[in-house]
Amino acid sequence: MSHTIQAVRGMNDILPGDAHFWEFFETTVVDWLKSYGYRAIRLPIVESTDLFVRSIGEVTDIVEKEMYTFIDALNGESLTLRPEGTAGCARAVMQHNLSYNAPQRLYYMGPMFRHERPQKGRYRQFHQVGVEAFGFPGPDMDVEHIVMTSRLWKRLGLTDVRLQINTLGDSAARRRHRQKLVRYLERRVEQLDEDAKRRLHANPLRILDSKNPAMQEMIESAPRLMDDLEEDALRHFEQLQQSLREAEIECEINPRLVRGLDYYNFTVFEWVTDRLGAQGTVCAGGRYDGLLAQLGGKPAPACGFAMGVERLLALMAAQQVTAPSPPADVYLAHQGAVADRFALHAAERLRDHGIQVIYHCGGGGFKSQMKKADHSGARYAIILGDDEAARNMLTLKPLRELGEQAQLSLEEAIDVLSSPAPGNSAAS
Ligand code: ATP
Ligand code: MG
Fold first, then answer.
1. Where do the domains of the chain lie, and which CATH numbers do they carry?
2. Ligand 2 mean position, distance from CA 327 (Å)
3. Cβ(54)–Cβ(177) under 8 Å?
4. Structure pTM?
5. Taking a C-beta distance cutoff of 8 angstroms, is the pair 103, 38 a contact?
6. Ligand 1 pocket: which of 279, 283, 305, 316 to mutate (most atoms <8 Å of CB)?
């Protein structure tokens, strides 16, 4: 039996009706990133599996159960579709010695892949905009990242997003805290769910991040990492908060914020909203000073964040943010051998002047062509028959505004169409 092929579950098409919204988002984001001096880096979608295991950490949701890993049948290598961008970005920075001479402010955007249960705001192919800074010990850079995201929300017209911050200290403090935490949890082992039991010795810090309501009370009274932090971690955190106050950015300290990736230290933060149900985190990041060394490179301080594009677009839609989607300027209808030739030339001449032209393809009479012109949303139609073409003239007809159609030369039409006020009618 034949069946039609469907997209892979959890991997979405972005259709033309939505794509302009994506483009609006992307151009706004690129413009915003450039205003902070960030430069693009484009990275492969496939990396060696090892990279993610060593960076994200073996006992994390992502590495344990969400990665699309496969053996390259041609050479036996284990490869993985990237579940996030930081690891690949750090790899590229090391491989090409990018931060050797100067610190780097970088960004990338594109699809990420995680084998999760698809639901609203959670997909198997989703998109992130990632920002990473290498070579800055902070906390000024941590502050820059938070300040810049706050500006982006304003530019996108988003209001209901709240900032949560926390500090994870350095690895020595986390080790001390871990011992206390494990002791605390071991005494309450009967209250732990399956996931937590598995993590008890492998990654106990992650238990604090559990959303299981049955464990919340126990998590609330668990020993706090904050109490084990050293002077420098506390100072870093204090300076971060001080700068955020000065920048008038409100934040909430969430001592349970640990993030799902093992490479973080010191600052971690999330921007969350209540408008998207359970999938409320739209942006998350922090500092990962140990990652480059952990991957075998020269140590360098680093921090960054990633935004979930689908969630931000959903939030924009929920807040009735609309994206401008200007239609083409002209639909060019033509009929007859002389007209067809002239039309092809005229369309290119119009485009030379920055005018957007939909050139009618597929033949047919003027009546059906004009229907298509109307349907296209174009502001004007140009109508070209053999008689007019022979006289080097055309008919310009406004489709969206009042006004008479007019017979013009191509030069006159270019003048009308490239005049800055689109409201002007072609009629003279
Ligand atoms: P969550 O707690 O929602 O699973 P996470 O901690 O796994 O998020 P990160 O790895 O920090 O997420 O990714 C950064 C952002 O990317 C998230 O805040 C979210 O906006 C988005 N994101 C992560 N996973 C998905 C997914 N499966 N589908 C859509 N967006 C996602
Ligand atoms: Mg996740």
1. 16-170+230-318 (3.30.930.10), 330-418 (3.40.50.800)
2. 38
3. no
4. 0.90
5. no
6. 279
